[in-house]
Amino acid sequence: MSVARRSMARSIAAHAVLIAYVLIALFPVFVIVINSVKSRRAIFADPLALPTAETFDLVGYHTVLRQGDFLLYFQNSMIVTVASLALVLLFGAMAAFALSEYRFWGNSLMGLYLALGIMIPIRLGTVVILQMMVAGGLVNTLTALVLVYTAQGLPLAVFILSEFMRGVSDDLKNAGRIDGLSEYAIFFRLVLPLVRPAMATVAVFTMIPIWNDLWFPLILAPSEATKTITLGSQVFIGQFVTNWNAVLAALSLAILPVLVMYLIFSRQLIRGITAGAVK
Amino acid sequence: QDVTLTIESWRNDDLQIWQDTIIPAFEAANPGIGVVFAPTAPAEYNAILNSKLDAGSAGDLITCRPFDASLELFNSDKLADLTDLAAMENFSDVAKSAWQTDDGASTFCVPLASVIHGFMYNRTAFDELGLEPPATMDEFYTLLDAIQEDGTYIPMAMGSADQWEAATMGYQNIGPTFWKGEEGRRALIAGEQSLTDEGWVEPFRHLARWGAYLGEGFEAQTYPDSQNLFTLGRAAIYPAGSWEIGVFTPQIDGAFEMGAFPPPVMAEGGTCYISDHTDIALGLNAASPNADAARTFLEWVGSAEFATLYANALPGFFSLNSAPVEMEDPLAQEFVGWRESCEPTIRSTYQILSRGTPNLENETWNASANVLAGTETPEDAAARLQEGLASWYEPQQ
Amino acid sequence: MDALTLTQVTKKFGRTQVIDGIDLAVAPGEFCVFVGPSGCGKSTLLRMIAGLEDVTSGQIAIGGRQVTDLPPARREIAMVFQSYALYPHLSVRDNMGLALRQAGTPKAEVLASTDRAADMLSLTALLDRRPADLSGGQRQRVAIGRAIVRRPKLFLFDEPLSNLDAALRVATRIEIARLHRELGATMIYVTHDQVEAMTLAHKIVVLRAGRVEQVGAPMDLYNDPDNRFVAGFIGSPAMNFLDAGALGLRSDSLGVRPEHLAISAQGGTIPGRVSHLERLGGETLSYVQTEAHGLLTVRQFGEHDHAVDGPVWLTPDLERAFHFNAEGQRMRA
Amino acid sequence: MDALTLTQVTKKFGRTQVIDGIDLAVAPGEFCVFVGPSGCGKSTLLRMIAGLEDVTSGQIAIGGRQVTDLPPARREIAMVFQSYALYPHLSVRDNMGLALRQAGTPKAEVLASTDRAADMLSLTALLDRRPADLSGGQRQRVAIGRAIVRRPKLFLFDEPLSNLDAALRVATRIEIARLHRELGATMIYVTHDQVEAMTLAHKIVVLRAGRVEQVGAPMDLYNDPDNRFVAGFIGSPAMNFLDAGALGLRSDSLGVRPEHLAISAQGGTIPGRVSHLERLGGETLSYVQTEAHGLLTVRQFGEHDHAVDGPVWLTPDLERAFHFNAEGQRMRA
Amino acid sequence: MAGRRARRWHIGVFLAPAVLVYTAIMIVPLLGTLNLSLFARGEEGRVFVGLANFATLFGDPRWSGAFWNALGNNAWFFLIHMLVQNPVGVALAALLSAPRLRMAAFYRTAIFVPTILSFVIVGFVWKLILSPLWGIAPGMLDGIGLRSLFAPWLGREEYALTTLALISVWQFVGIPMMLIYAALLSIPDEVIEAAEIDGITGWSQFRKIKLPLILPAIGIISILTFVGNFNAFDLIYVSQGALAGPDFSTDILGTFLYRTFFGFQLQLGDPHMGAAIATAMFAIILAGVCVYLFGIQRRLRRYQF
Ligand SMILES: Nc1ncnc2c1ncn2[C@@H]1O[C@H](COP(=O)(O)OP(=O)(O)OP(=O)(O)O)[C@@H](O)[C@H]1O
Ligand SMILES: Nc1ncnc2c1ncn2[C@@H]1O[C@H](COP(=O)(O)OP(=O)(O)OP(=O)(O)O)[C@@H](O)[C@H]1O
Ligand SMILES: [Mg+2]
Ligand SMILES: [Mg+2]
């Protein structure tokens, strides 16, 4: 594509709009970050002020690091998120492939069945889930969380991925079939690489609610050894007092890994991966 | 350690105190029993606790909400009967009433603390403006007008966004004065009074007047906002609960001096009433495998030693133990001192009246906030509450 | 046993009948070319043989084995797609080697095979590029390379050379012929290039609207077409059809190949005017507008010049002309 | 004023030089054909003219107006893409009519134009289909239709006929020629089909690895190539290059067109064996393996038969042969 | 692809893991819960009451009033997302997918950052910004001379829901943006180039070429927005509490359900009525999804590139 094609004015306008929107998107984040390093007094005295020598205060971060083993929480969050994500992507993509690629009896029904999960909040099933985990001896293990999040993430993953998989050229898959690739090989070697942008999208969508979830860690794995970082942060939200310094600090810290994961995934959205496949 | 007891609680705030003060004291005296305090964010506590109890994964010791929430757990055999606990001797019937069956036959939680409502004020500001705490409602409004006039301070810190504030610190704070404390509360339960009676509408009328003295945009002001307004020294008066003592003291950190006054009386020489609300107790999970150790712990919780420890660690949470407790915090002493001069009562909606749908407590939050924000008249609000209550509560029909 | 047998194969897309009862047998080692106008169903038929389209009815057997219900992977075929269908995320080398590696061929052998194919198709310099960075012709060569690397029993080619330049086309055509001889494989080949059809095929299948019009060796079709459609379709430039009545003949139309029409400025049987002249160096094509027979094409060997718009006379070589009846059927003497 | 002027146009993809300093002027109404081996940069050059690729350096002017920095939409061109690039969501009719409607042409007129184009390209029956339901050739015709409907000043065609069958190809070729005459538009046309290049072009530009090898009228290139590359590229089958030394000539190599090599079983200058025979009906191509000159192609008019592997003798027509020096440059007498 | 193939085990293999995990950990518990809607708490534990809970939900004016209020609010919440979030998301994606846009990766990330944040933070920061007390929004409006436009939006019945919906839009606009962006990237360059040459540029190129090609993605987004909005809960819960003030003006089905199912303060959780509400919600959402799946999605043409 060409420079000649882009008139100067158009590109300036595009940048102007984008910058304006970025300001809207980032302004509140900016407010969070600057206030996480201010004293409580300073937060409410002037929330927009940058931290000065006087108001600069890492008390939030100190509180966070003093309270419990944050590195461990962090690690737990990471393990749970990454493991659930991997399972959601793998199982979700496989199911999506089956739904989008094959015509079989009950295909639409199966699609609908797998989509039911996005229609009811899984929280409602808490008691039964907890009973199952108790029965399986999985309470206070990360496995319990991984299982729940996998189930929770699957419907959306299947829904989005099957839509994207319908866009993969049939000729391409057929070429693979003729090349003697089994259906599994077609899935793993051809289709998965080609829907990488969609996988990245799904990964991002799946990862965020998992990372930020408070409910299931509280119920299924509240023990010190299995606490997630979000659960760790909620100690600072009390009945009558909320330690905003600590909450801001803890959650600002918790943003970083998700942001990093997001950056990793968004690299997959490389332009034109399918170009040149078919004429 | 042989046994580890886990305490389920909504008191995130107290984590530090339990870990650093209370639990070590117990463990020192009871080798072989370890205790873990595992609090949950207060808003989720009931839901999470119920789920865990249903599934059988809840801790050994359960922090008890007052009245129906715990009664329900007891009735469904989730909480053990603690009537025979020796330490129960140490509590008056009133103290235990929040955790007993309606007939008073069984008690299932060891009372921990109550909280008292009143008004805190910025004594430094009062001094500056030459003002005195009010004794009557009229003086109260004169005082507010004076602060308003001066303009340096927002007269009173309260918002309607969280609803809870308007109901608890407003309606339940000044209300007992009008419905005459226990007298009115019992009459309401018995169906002898209704919420549309003067005594129950009047507090709403006052709430409706308060709007004028609150900060700009108080409709969107949340409870933490109100706290901050006061502790940052921007508001002069703060309708409060005693639990704020422990919160505010470090936050204000000497920036100004605090004082407190009880809810003003209707007229010079009238009786003063305070809400001295039984708020928190500790029960035993009926399914606990460590019931013996847990009972040992509960006996200790019912002791005078614990009472002193707790009340001093958490100024503003007043022990319900019959044994007198020495408190060091002057403001806490001030609050608890009102027990001598005023008639105590508990929050009107808590016992029995919030058992049905619509839920009177929740409705009262909503009504108080509406009235404070001026979107509903006191009379309409009262009528609505009465109608809701009558819809399911037989004595009121 | 035949390498490929089609028995009453039909195909419908919705209600459109695209393939209409085709019977065909291809002998082992045979080179069979499908020709026919655009949209006549060549690709569809090929895809059915490959197993990429269901047959609506009928049977397909490959090497004597019924494959009608077998998946493509188990039909032991290779195919070059009209749309290339390269794997966009793989390099040229991996595009060609994937099938072999999938089959568990040792690495060194895969490498050797792909190198050989790349060499044959002048792709060696491009082995590490991805399809997106290739020109149209280069992509097409990769697609061919992918098929030949595997050396299966049955090859299916869908217009494999249409994007190659003349030199490469000739070279690849000869390569395919050589490959065919070497491997002894059976090949089914779709093309609309006369030269390819005539030079590569043992057997040409002329299709029209989903039906077989005629099957035969190239020269048989050329010299002995069954009907006007085949006569017009085989041979380039296409045969001229003259109005037999106007010439005093008893058939309906007379087919005369462009090279069998003599052209002269002096005189002849049919008067006309040159409307367009194409000089190709080795030959010259004149398009002559005539009163009685419309536009006729004349092909002359070598370079010739005729004044455009100038009057000329054409003389058909009646000996080598074909007679057709009103239904377009050949009237054999 | 020239319809198109390229001044020292270059293009790099990363560090690969794909177009290397091209100068070219195309007169108004001229029909200019780019030929060259696959990957030589034809499509890239065309895309630069269209404004779809940036020029790395150099200038492009269309109709005397500098357009180097103008977006494609403002260059007043139409283009047929090698990959068709149809709008998948629009019917054939809308694919062709979209540009006109965008330009605000009245509905009736749009309809008339598309109908005319559809008629010309035998697309009338397909007007309501979408690209996905068309065969390869049909898609290509839609792509052509989309370009001609707009009747712009400058047409760019990238191998527009490569997927058409022979008959349609001839018809479309003649249509394009007619269109060109009618509209008087300037056309730039990329092809690797000799016949198209020779018959359509006023001017052929022979490209090789991003450079212009020779520019000229078709017969000029055919009869008077500047170098061995052009000589070999123009004309099909390609020219034979004989080892001049072995023939006792003083040049390095001798170019002889296949039609200028006489073949005889009895005797001649160069002995060899027939290695492959292609009988096309109207002509016969023999590939003869010789000791001294490698594989030589012989073209004969009409049908001939030579025993494959049988010994033959070839005799070049020295009168019509070309001499080249060691650098491949033509040595003119 | 081809239909009648013998023994297509692979379909089962592809489906099995997802279906198993999903059924065991999601469907079974949820069915168990929804099943509760047919029971009620009786003297002796649980008793079967048939559809009585639904009769209460829709027949008792208190329950039905709350339900319809929540449904109405929810519809408005959804409408705002459809009218603001999705068009803005599409517009941003369109801008971002412009060829060779500099800093595109930065923009994309920045716009997505709010989506990463937890609700706790989002609720806190917007309350802080919009608070009349701490001066950010009033101060900024003052700065552009529009101070008079300021109102305590979150505290007023007439604005609160809209304000929250817009906050939610702010938070989630990254999702439609990402999906549309991915869809736009899969349109082949050549098609866009053909349009450029045809003189179809800018807005009309977007409307006539790109938009039809990304319609399936827009369809997905709409249905995801629908499902997400009718399941929404957290934002309202953290910023307005379970009572969804002021005066239930921000009460949506999710908060209504939560309050009923799990209880709130003195209100005890009622799993039976809660399950009835959940079932009703589920029916509404399912109806919407079916309309989409069988009415709209079938009609959307997908294009393979
Ligand atoms: N995006 C790209 N990046 C790198 N190299 C490219 C790119 N596009 C094309 N090329 C290379 O540039 C050269 C010229 O490509 P171009 O498509 O212009 O060839 P062409 O002459 O049109 O060939 P053909 O006749 O096969 O279509 C080729 O070698 C090709 O591999
Ligand atoms: N999926 C489809 N749905 C409906 N009709 C189709 C479909 N695919 C192809 N067709 C039609 O079937 C007929 C045969 O198509 P096919 O691709 O086999 O033609 P072809 O002979 O290969 O033509 P070409 O030489 O142009 O490639 C065409 O008329 C085409 O429009
Ligand atoms: Mg085809
Ligand atoms: Mg090209």
UniProtKB/TrEMBL annotation, chain A:
<dbReference type="InterPro" id="IPR050901">
    <property type="entry name" value="BP-dep_ABC_trans_perm"/>
</dbReference>
<feature type="transmembrane region" description="Helical">
    <location>
        <begin position="12"/>
        <end position="34"/>
    </location>
</feature>
<keyword id="KW-0812">Transmembrane</keyword>
<feature type="transmembrane region" description="Helical">
    <location>
        <begin position="146"/>
        <end position="165"/>
    </location>
</feature>
<feature type="domain" description="ABC transmembrane type-1">
    <location>
        <begin position="74"/>
        <end position="265"/>
    </location>
</feature>
<keyword id="KW-1133">Transmembrane helix</keyword>
<keyword id="KW-0472">Membrane</keyword>
<keyword id="KW-1003">Cell membrane</keyword>
<dbReference type="Pfam" id="PF00528">
    <property type="entry name" value="BPD_transp_1"/>
</dbReference>
<feature type="transmembrane region" description="Helical">
    <location>
        <begin position="246"/>
        <end position="265"/>
    </location>
</feature>
<keyword id="KW-0813">Transport</keyword>
<feature type="transmembrane region" description="Helical">
    <location>
        <begin position="111"/>
        <end position="134"/>
    </location>
</feature>
<protein>
    <submittedName>
        <fullName>Carbohydrate ABC transporter permease</fullName>
    </submittedName>
</protein>
<feature type="transmembrane region" description="Helical">
    <location>
        <begin position="78"/>
        <end position="99"/>
    </location>
</feature>
<dbReference type="GO" id="GO:0005886">
    <property type="term" value="C:plasma membrane"/>
</dbReference>
From TrEMBL, chains C, D:
<dbReference type="GO" id="GO:1990060">
    <property type="term" value="C:maltose transport complex"/>
</dbReference>
<keyword id="KW-0813">Transport</keyword>
<dbReference type="GO" id="GO:0016887">
    <property type="term" value="F:ATP hydrolysis activity"/>
</dbReference>
<dbReference type="InterPro" id="IPR017871">
    <property type="entry name" value="ABC_transporter-like_CS"/>
</dbReference>
<dbReference type="InterPro" id="IPR013611">
    <property type="entry name" value="Transp-assoc_OB_typ2"/>
</dbReference>
<protein>
    <submittedName>
        <fullName>ATP-binding cassette domain-containing protein</fullName>
    </submittedName>
</protein>
<dbReference type="InterPro" id="IPR008995">
    <property type="entry name" value="Mo/tungstate-bd_C_term_dom"/>
</dbReference>
<dbReference type="InterPro" id="IPR003439">
    <property type="entry name" value="ABC_transporter-like_ATP-bd"/>
</dbReference>
<dbReference type="GO" id="GO:0015423">
    <property type="term" value="F:ABC-type maltose transporter activity"/>
</dbReference>
<dbReference type="GO" id="GO:0005524">
    <property type="term" value="F:ATP binding"/>
</dbReference>
<dbReference type="InterPro" id="IPR015855">
    <property type="entry name" value="ABC_transpr_MalK-like"/>
</dbReference>
<dbReference type="Pfam" id="PF00005">
    <property type="entry name" value="ABC_tran"/>
</dbReference>
<dbReference type="InterPro" id="IPR012340">
    <property type="entry name" value="NA-bd_OB-fold"/>
</dbReference>
<keyword id="KW-0547">Nucleotide-binding</keyword>
<dbReference type="Pfam" id="PF08402">
    <property type="entry name" value="TOBE_2"/>
</dbReference>
UniProtKB/TrEMBL annotation, chain E:
<feature type="transmembrane region" description="Helical">
    <location>
        <begin position="213"/>
        <end position="233"/>
    </location>
</feature>
<feature type="transmembrane region" description="Helical">
    <location>
        <begin position="75"/>
        <end position="98"/>
    </location>
</feature>
<comment type="similarity">
    <text>Belongs to the binding-protein-dependent transport system permease family.</text>
</comment>
<keyword id="KW-1133">Transmembrane helix</keyword>
<keyword id="KW-1003">Cell membrane</keyword>
<feature type="transmembrane region" description="Helical">
    <location>
        <begin position="159"/>
        <end position="184"/>
    </location>
</feature>
<dbReference type="GO" id="GO:0005886">
    <property type="term" value="C:plasma membrane"/>
</dbReference>
<dbReference type="InterPro" id="IPR000515">
    <property type="entry name" value="MetI-like"/>
</dbReference>
<feature type="transmembrane region" description="Helical">
    <location>
        <begin position="12"/>
        <end position="32"/>
    </location>
</feature>
<dbReference type="InterPro" id="IPR035906">
    <property type="entry name" value="MetI-like_sf"/>
</dbReference>
<dbReference type="InterPro" id="IPR051393">
    <property type="entry name" value="ABC_transporter_permease"/>
</dbReference>
<feature type="transmembrane region" description="Helical">
    <location>
        <begin position="273"/>
        <end position="295"/>
    </location>
</feature>
<feature type="domain" description="ABC transmembrane type-1">
    <location>
        <begin position="71"/>
        <end position="294"/>
    </location>
</feature>
<protein>
    <submittedName>
        <fullName>Sugar ABC transporter permease</fullName>
    </submittedName>
</protein>
<dbReference type="GO" id="GO:0055085">
    <property type="term" value="P:transmembrane transport"/>
</dbReference>
